[in-house]
Design goal:
Elements: H1 4-18, E1 25-28, H2 36-39, E2 45-51, E3 54-59, E4 64-68, E5 74-79, E6 90-95, E7 99-104, E8 108-112, H3 114-117, H4 121-125, H5 137-144, H6 154-157, H7 169-178, H8 192-212, E9 246-250, E10 253-257
Antiparallel strand pairs: 1-6, 2-3, 3-4, 4-8, 5-7, 6-7, 9-10
Amino acid sequence: MPEGPEIRRAADNLEAAIKGKPLTGAWFAFPQLKPYESRLLGQTITHIETRGKALLTHFSNQLTLYSHNQLYGVWRVVKTGETVQTNRVLRVKLQSAENTILLYSASDIEMLTPEQLTTHPFLQRVGPDVLDPRLTVEVVKARLLSPAFRNRQFSGLLLDQAFLAGLGNYLRVEILWEVGLAAQRKASQLSEPQLDALSQALLAIPRLSYQTRGVVNENKHHGALFRFKVFHRDGKRCERCGGVIEKTTVSSRPFYWCPHCQK
């Protein structure tokens, strides 16, 4: 299941294909969106924002296309005029002279005004995105200690998009391994150094994954490269302590951890 880093890279691909280029065509499958087809002609996509698994495609006329991939939605980039062979159902097509971006299979799609952006139910409920460069370690620490989250077990908290958007299962297990914490721990139980380490990891690990994961030629990057330390490594030795990594189910999701050093 794609998590924040994968969604952000998908948004980057869409931006690279069509950002800033006048739209020569717009098509929507849903009747309520049909009136916007003509309103988007000649407009440009100024930027594409991610909020967890939701994409906000911002247009130069101040409209914003909200789309949530849910389980089956997927965006694709093709050359304008190219025929796509797929069994998926097309929902959105936005084209420029050179490239076209296509959204398949998603059902949660809306066009929002600036005012509606501030009151949209999902956007109001979801927390700040871990890949938003404006999000700081200090803000993350304050959220960990807030009344809404301080007594939540990390097993569920790190999957809750209301806490931080963009986290998912592989990030959950890698973050908790990095700071040596078991899934059952809570922020209210942690020492100040533990809180600081967790707050930093909650941003650093997703951002490292976004920056480096999926790179074929690892020599292109100097310094750290994201790779799994525990995820899908059950039965193997822990790099930190030499213990054996185990797999269990926590909050209805597969969970990988080292019982020897995650206390």
